[in-house]
Write a structure and sequence with these properties.
Chain A is mainly alpha-helical. Chain A is built from 4 helices and no strands. Chain A is elongated and about 75 Å long. Chain B: One of its GO terms (molecular function) is NADH dehydrogenase (ubiquinone) activity.
Chain lengths: 136, 512
């Protein structure tokens, strides 16, 4: 069973990497989502898949015998909640960026780091002297 | 004398309380300001108490829910962690006071104070935790707060910067989570002391090295090392002065802390393999950072690139791995946090009094405010490493350590980058202070001089931090001594492991 899951993990990371390299921010969000789920799968795999018995300690016992590993499940629950919150924030941020900047193309978002050529366009007129020489 | 449980939980309790109270009083700006300041002072006070308890070399441990060590989450404070928490407290108060000047005016109601405390909570938790998955959770708390702080203003450039900052940081933390999963699969435990105990016994040491490099990439992206630093210069210069000051002080340093912690405690075995990689990373980080700074004319962008450049020095400890080098790295982190945050606070003053962050549109500050020039020179020359300021002692220690260990290229790069740092600082000095003021700057200067309260609020944390820099510079002995002992403590893993697991006989019964 584990090789199948390991393969699925690899495919998911590959898909995420492909989506993240896209210039469209919508695809980037999807990439982050897939990558987060790949991480959850890797935690699940790391906890071993050798048992299908629910990890319940029988009444009167103090040790768990033969049950599935409960720790990865707790970790994944935590990770799912965190990645849900972060992706929700990301979607809102990307949407407001889309609305304000009018583009979904990450390459076209140059507001914070304008290209030198674009600088004279975005800056107010008065502050654009032909060329400011560096002070020695 | 408080007990260890209280000492270790108070530094995270104050910011957590601050968040809750700020959320309760979300409509009242003044109440939020008071809560923010009170929680920051509480953090500083508890950090001082923590430092008083561990400065002699004891390692404090608390086990949450009273679960025995490998099973529950532990908080551990050794000298390094306590020093980081203390400096976080100092920064929290200094930048918190500075923020009262209303630099974030239109955004202040949009949960600035809440997110500020959230950032402190995440950072402090990351410094204190002894559990690798818990470290991931603190990272995320820190991240979501920084996302909020960065996008607070909602201006066009902030949204643009936010897209890049959020994307690259989310990839980095997810990568960290995958690394944690692999490490767990290999060792079957998440407790860092337990991992340190189990790792040398793992059969497949090649896998351990692979995971070490994965952690290096994940934390390296957080610490903004070459070539993973692109999120930092894309984002930092868009936030307002107090926000970028606290970012500059704390965010990348958590990454550095995590690198130093994992590579002294967990992956210390194969330094022959990871050492040259980290050395290359350190050199490229220093050089690209300082060259990037040389090409810019916005103060905030110059300083942002210098953060990257300085991160390279902090990696010397991992490359050289002698007590002197690790101690030097610790001293460097402490010195750098104070100096860099102070420079960003000064950038805020230059913007207020000089009219712009852009060096081409400001000037003449030395004529109108000579004392501000002196205040600028203290952190600026300290950053460049001029004696007798704090930067000199920290650079001296890391470079001496690398020369002792015959890492000549590393030491040479460090010295050269120091000179180039001086170039950038002189550029800021020439442009903002010496050059004649452009005509549009006079209005800003008049409003600055008319507003006595703002001046007092903005300048007092700058003066205080400059005093810290001078203290480290002129009374270097106790700070150097502390860093050396903290470095030696880091390199002796058994101190940490024994503190977490308690007496040896208990150990055998837990892990038969």
């Amino acid at each position: 069973m584990e090789p199948v899951f390991a393969l699925a993990f690899g495919v998911m990371v590959a898909v995420a990497a492909y989506l993240l390299m896209s210039r469209n921010v919508l695809r980037i969000v999807l990439g982050l989502l897939v990558l987060g789920n790949a991480a959850n799968l890797s935690i699940f795999l790391a906890g071993r898949l050798d048992s299908r018995i629910p990890p319940l300690v029988p009444a009167g016992e103090t040790m768990l015998v033969g049950g599935a590993n409960p720790l990865p499940q707790a970790l994944i629950l935590t990770a799912i909640v965190i990645s849900f919150a972060l992706v929700a924030f990301t979607v809102v941020l990307f949407e407001s960026a889309h609305r304000r900047l009018g583009t979904l193309d990450a390459e076209a978002m140059r507001e914070a780091e304008p290209r030198p050529a674009e600088k004279s366009v975005t800056e107010p007129r008065r502050s654009a002297p032909a060329k400011v020489t560096e002070h020695a | 004398m408080m007990n260890a449980d209280l000492l270790l939980t108070l530094p995270i309790l104050f910011p957590a309380l601050g968040i809750a109270l700020c959320a309760l009083f979300w409509s009242n700006k003044n109440a939020q300001r008071a809560i923010n300041l009170a929680a920051s002072i509480g953090l500083l006070g508890s950090a001082i108490a923590l430092m008083a308890a561990v400065h002699d070399g004891t390692v404090l441990v608390t086990r949450f829910g009273n679960w025995d060590a490998p099973f529950g989450i532990v908080f551990v404070a050794d000298m390094f962690a306590a020093a980081m928490v203390l400096i976080t407290g100092v920064m929290a108060v200094a930048v918190g006071v500075y923020g009262l000047a209303g630099n974030i005016e239109p955004k202040e109601n949009a949960f600035y104070h809440l997110l500020y405390q959230g950032l402190l909570l995440g950072v402090t938790g990351a410094f204190l935790t002894g559990d690798i998955f818990n470290l991931y959770v603190w990272f995320e708390i820190m991240l979501i707060s920084s996302f909020g702080l960065l996008a607070l203003g909602g201006t066009r450039d902030q949204l643009d910067a936010g897209v890049k900052y959020v994307t690259l940081n989310l990839i980095a933390t997810t990568f960290f989570l995958i690394s944690v999963a692999f490490l767990y699969g290999l060792t079957g435990t998440l407790n860092m002391a337990d991992i340190a105990r189990v790792l040398p016994t793992v059969e497949n040491q090649g896998l351990v090295t692979t995971i070490a490099v994965m952690f290096l990439m994940a934390f390296g992206a957080k610490a903004a090392v070459f070539p993973l630093f692109y999120w930092l210069p894309a984002a930092y210069h868009t936030a307002s002065a107090p926000i970028v000051a606290i970012f500059a002080a704390l965010l990348t340093k958590v990454g550095v802390y995590a690198i130093i912690r994992t590579f002294t405690l967990l992956f210390d075995g194969d330094a022959g393999y990871t050492g040259p990689i980290v050395a290359g990373i350190a050199i490229f980080t220093m050089v690209t950072g300082v060259l990037g700074a040389a090409s810019h004319f916005d103060i905030r962008r110059i300083l942002s690139f210098h953060i990257i450049s300085q991160i390279g020095y902090m990696l010397f400890g991992i490359v050289v791995a002698t007590p002197l080098a690790v101690g030097g790295s610790i001293l460097y982190v402490i010195h750098h946090i104070v100096v860099k945050a102070n420079l960003f606070l000064l950038a805020g003053v230059v913007n207020r009094a000089g009219g712009s962050f852009d060096l081409k549109k400001t000037g003449g500050l030395y004529r109108t405010m000579p004392m501000l020039g002196v205040l600028f020179l203290i952190p600026a020359l300290s950053l460049a490493g001029l004696p007798p300021l704090s930067g000199f002692w920290s650079k001296f220690t890391v470079i001496k350590a690398s020369l002792d260990a015959e890492h000549y290229i590393l030491a040479g790069a460090g010295l050269m980058v120091g000179t180039l740092t001086l170039y950038s600082m002189v550029k800021i000095w020439n442009e903002a202070f010496w050059k004649a003021a452009p005509e549009n700057a006079t209005a800003a200067m008049q409003s600055w001089q008319a507003d006595r309260r703002t001046r007092l609020i903005m300048l007092s944390p700058i003066v205080a931090l400059a005093c810290v820099t001078l203290t480290i510079g002129f009374f270097a002995e106790p700070f150097v001594d502390f860093s050396m002992r903290a470095g030696a403590q880091l390199l002796d893993q058994s101190v940490y492991i024994d503190a977490v697991f308690g007496p040896a006989e208990q150990l055998a019964e837990v892990n038969p």
